[in-house]
Amino acid sequence: MVPANETPAQPAPGDTVSHYRILEKLGGGGMGVVYRAEDTRLGRPVALKVLSPALSRDRGAAERFVREARAASALEHPNICVIHDIGEHEGGQFIVMELLEGQSLRQRIAGRPVDADEVVDVAIQVADALDVAHAKGIVHRDVKPANIFLTRRGQAKILDFGLAKAGSGPGAAEDSQSPTEVLPEEHLTSPGHVVGTVAYMSPEQARGRALDGRSDLFSLGLVLYEMATGRPAFSGATSAVIFEAILDRAPIPPLRLNPALSPDLERIILRCLEKDPKLRYQTAADLVADLRRYKRDSDSGRSASRPVEVVATPEVAPGSDMTGPASAPAASVPSSSLVRSAARLLPTRRARWAALATVAVIAVAASVLYFRRGEALTQQDFILLTDFTNTRATRSSTAP
Asked: Which residues are tagged catalytic?
């Protein structure tokens, strides 16, 4: 701890913290300031998070800072930010993390809906990482767009386990502490006064009740809602308004805000947002399974909806005969495989039989005319045959 009359100085570019050389400031949050730095021992770039000087003498803040490092370092998952080291320098504490290049999910949304494919991809990655955390009894308690980072390669990373609670078994967690306050628009968690961010809290978290992994799934549902619609599910001018909406009001259906959204994806999001934890997904693994099924079915639907290739017949000038060595046989008909494929596209069995009958009548009539007249059919002959057979087929398909 820092002596009562001292406050650790904030590092500046060019300074060295332990064996990490500060290169530039990347940003700041409720707990500390993040710098780009170089590990002088291993020669690799890292992110250095230094506890804010104003919090250095706050025992609770220091404990939460250490908890963040321990909770994240206990989890091995590609979608959880890797913790390399933790230490103290000149009375200030710091955490060394992997350096991520990209942007936060909050920056990615920026008030606009995100493509549905990206919504599903991010949801699968984050839910899978939460499943690993919940299996170790760790509940994040602050899942929000600002705590999800998107790398330049499209990989999602969960950040900031400073408010995480570790229990004794899968999904277990300690009781939450005092309610939170309304925060600035950046939704930065205020250490020492909050246990989450108001706009992304679950109902049970807002009530100060014991939490398990289902609370994180509600918060993730709020994140997915915002990705799908470009706006938060619950908002208001004061914390009281937001709390009331979280506890008692249903969010506007995502499809009303984004008509391009799939009803199936809307169903998944709204199930995450059930106010009763028993009606939500019970585990992150269940959510991941539903998302992967949705993705599989969506991909299959796109493949099935590709346009059918149509083989066109050559045009014939009016009044000319379909003769000559370069012309196709006048009485030729589509191959049996093409006929069967076309028939399968028709809506009813009666319509399919009518189509097959039409092709058969044309073929027989064309053959008879060919042998009786001893010459190839003209375009006018084909028009008359087609009109006749279409009329008969229509009557057959509509007959009771």
From this structure: 142
